[in-house]
Write a structure and sequence with these properties.
single chain, 97 residues, alpha+beta, Alpha-Beta Plaits, four-stranded antiparallel β-sheet, 3 helices
Length: 97
Amino acid sequence: MFVVTVVFKVKKDVVEAFRKAVQQQAKNSLTKEEGCERFDVCFDSDDPQGVFLYELYVDAAAFEAHTQTDHFKNFREVSQPMLEDREVRFWSLQKAA
């Protein structure tokens, strides 16, 4: 399984708008993409500007397909001006033996 984590730092004046947009992005990814197994959106309890995503795909090709969808491209365009920072990391999920 292919894992993507994203940590966002959202501009203070657009936190609520970003939260709505990222939750819609999660819903779209889960309902419109066969290869997207999980898309968790987490809000930092201590910092309203902090948002963490945990995304699970069947493989790297499914993630690549995700990046080509209209909803991904729209989210990227809408969210980019709302951000102070974004860190994306890629992982390989290893199941316990």
